Each structure stands twice: as structure tokens, then as C-alpha cells.
């Protein structure tokens, strides 16, 4: 145990600091401070020694240099068991510092506010980050509090142990401090690297959530990121790893639609989706595509869930529902199942990059934030031009196929999914799977449209589709046999749109 006899306190955030200061002062701890923190301590009626009296220099360069001095860092870094260090402290009249409480300028918040570069640069902390590293390095003798989030736990420790700390506690706070400093440096690097594009990856996430388990019960799992910025959990059991995968897929899919739309997902793929005037109607038609797979699925809509929709939705078992809002009547109905996860989605900017672990590393790519036919030029590859209804259905289907596992084929009609074939090694297999599923649920494919996530290497899929009554096709194109596929379509009075944009998803 080491007794805290002196403390250096210099913080940006002062909420919750007053009780710590009073606790330290009550047992005669010598307090050193700077600027606004010094004034704050004195406003509490406690004595405080200005750092300038140690350094012999005032705060200079507009506050850029305050604590960067051997008289400060020597007292923090001195090894109390090292006789030479102690002799040098005595020689240069440097006091030992047992506790450092410091936080960092709000760099990330300043960047997020849209401030100009000069304001952002001034929020790069120099003295604070140096104090954190110094105190953390010398955890054998010094304890570091590097975040306002630690004030509460540290105050309890002071009260319980009469302002003393163990080496295990000091080491823990040192680890926390290096977590703070590394995250801060990563944020600064990423700000600069948006323009410089240095080939390096720095990811730092301080928020984490324990998950029930991973993909399977024998796998432990956690999520690192800010789920609170994505949704608010209103009801239900803990969210699982698999839930999060489906939630991510659901939000990616629903973000493609502006009309009132409802989607049902299972294992990251849509098994039902429809756009309709009301949520209740959209739910009803989304469910028609595959009421079997909908069991235990994840539901998502881009409009408020009302009582009428909730009553219909409540008839089946599902894991998760996401919506921007719910009426009180709808919540009362949906909450009747205690484990059902009800999430309220928040407006957010989708991340620019996506990450995937492989081979012991991470692959990074730009998000696929475009939709073929909407964000690319469309070429009508056939003599027959599509009707407005056909174009609307093809674009609807292309949004679904973009968000389905490759190889993928989607069949749609009248603003709803009829069936899809997903995750197949052959595009023909994907189409045949979709056709079989559509027929199993009683759908006629006459007048339906077909969307493919990638080009047709041969005309066979177009021929199979035509034989089932599907005469409108949207695909990226790009095969060396495109001409053969287009020739077949022309010979059979079909319409084909070429988007020039592939949507593989693995």
C-alpha cells in the first residue's frame, strides 16, 4: 500500500471532481494544479499550489505549454526505491507526485462538431497525454486517473482505503490510462489520414458489450462499438452475436428504401420484403414470400409500427423487431413476449468503410453504398423497352439482390419479393431454388422480374426464367457472352436492363 501525499490535478471536465478534491484535502494531501482547475479547487475553499511555482515559468504560448517541465515530470517518474532518483529530486528541489488526475482536450468531439482545422488542431492535447503516459509508466509509485469516467470508482477507493492504493490497483489504472492515450492517438491519426491516406489501419473502440455467446454456444463473444448510436433497446433479452449479424443486414437492406417497407430476414438474407402504403400491408405481403422461414426471424421497417401492424406481427414468433418508432398501443402488444427484442432505430450516417477478419488480419473496403440502376447508368439491352411498372419492380428487386448472399437471384412482382435463391455456387442453382420456393408458396411467376447480383455467364438463366413467365431482367452485364444472352431476350420479346454495377456479397 502507498499513501497518497501529493497530487497533480489538471482537467478539462470538472463534473464529479469536487468530492475527490475534498477527500484528498481532508487528509492533508498537497494539491498542485493549473489554470482553470486551480481556480476550481480554490473555489471549493481548498489550498492549491500553482504548477508555475514548481516550474518557474508561467503558462505560455496561449496555454500550449504549462506542465512540460522536469520539475513536474521528475516528481511523477522518480522511482521511490531508487536512491539516485531520490537524490536528484532533493538536488533540484522537485517534490514527489503520487497521484495525477488529468483528462484530454475533446479532440473527437471537436472533429464531430464540424469545426475548422485550426480549432481541431488546438484540441490536440500535448501536456495531458504526456502526464498520462508518465504516471502510467511509473505505476509502481504513482496512480493515474485519465478519464472523468473513473472519478466515481476512484472516489470509492480513496474512501475505503484512506487515500492509499495497492500496486495492483495502480497497474489497473495504468492499463486504463494507456487505453485512453492509444484511443486518443488513433483518433488524431485517423483525422489526418483522411487526407494523407497513409496505408495503415488504426481502430480503437472503447465501448464494448458482452454477448450471450458467439455464433454457437461454445464460443464466447463481445461487440466493440457504439450500439447506442444505432438503436435504443426498448424490451427483451440480451442481444446475441447472431442477432447483431441479422440486425446489421436488416438495417443495410431497409436503408435502400424510401417508401414504407417491411422486411423479414433470416441468416442475413431477406426471406420477405414488400413496399406498401401502410406498415400493416407491407408486413402482410412480406410474410407471404416465405412464412416458414419468417419463424424466428429479424423484422425491420422504416415507418412507425401502429396497433394494426403490431396485432398482425404478434401472431408469429420472431427474435427481433426494428423500427424508428412504435405507438403506445403497438408497444403494449409487442411486449407481451418477455424475451422479444424490440429496438428503436436511430438516424445515422452509415460508415464509409467495412471490415472483415481473415487470415489473421483485416480486409478493409469502401462500403457498397450504391445501387445498380439508381447510382449507375442503365442500358436497355433489348429492343423492347420496359414499362414503368417493370422498371419499378426491377429496381426494387435489385436492392434486395444487392443485400443477399452471392450467388443470388431475386424474383419480385408488384413491389414485393416472391422468392430468392441465395448463397449458391451456381447462378442456375440460385434461380432454380427461387423458382421452386415461389411455386411452393403458390405464386405465379408470370409478369415477375428477375434480378441477378452478377452477370450471366451463359444465356441459360434467362432462358429458364422466360420459360417460367419471367420476361423482365436486371443484371450488371460484363460477360463475354452478353451478346448471346441479349440475343435470346430479343428473340423472345423480353426486356433486359444492364446496370454495369455488380453486387457480390460473400
List the helices and strands and how they pair.
Layout: E1 2-3, E2 6-10, H1 17-26, E3 30-33, H2 35-43, E4 49-50, H3 52-55, H4 70-77, H5 83-91, E5 99-102, H6 107-112, H7 117-122, H8 127-137, E6 143-145, H9 151-160, E7 164-165, H10 167-196, E8 208-210, E9 222-224, E10 231-235, H11 241-254, E11 261-266, E12 269-275, H12 279-288, E13 297-301, H13 307-313, E14 318-323, H14 328-334, E15 341-345, E16 353-358, E17 361-366, E18 379-380, H15 388-402, E19 409-413, E20 416-421, H16 427-440, E21 449-452, H17 460-467, E22 472-475, H18 482-491, E23 495-498
Parallel strand pairs: 2-3, 2-5, 3-4, 5-6, 13-14, 14-15, 21-22, 22-23
Antiparallel strand pairs: 1-7, 8-9, 10-15, 11-12, 11-13, 16-17, 18-23, 19-20, 19-21
How would you sum up this structure, described in words?
37% of the residues lie in helices and 20% in strands. It is built from 18 helices and 23 strands. A six-stranded mixed β-sheet has the order 10-15-14-13-11-12, with helices on both faces. The longest helix has 30 residues, at 167-196. The radius of gyration is 31 Å and the shape is elongated. The mean pLDDT is 94.
Main pleated sheet: 6 strands, mixed
Strand order of the largest sheet: 10-15-14-13-11-12
Distance between the termini: 55 Å
Estimate the mean pLDDT confidence: 94
Residue runs with pLDDT of under 50 for 5 or more positions: none
For the secondary structure, the number of strands is 23
* Secondary structure tally, helices: 18
Helical percentage: 25-40%
> Strand percentage, roughly?
15-25%
| Shape verdict | elongated
Structural class: alpha/beta
Rounded radius of gyration (Å): 31 Å
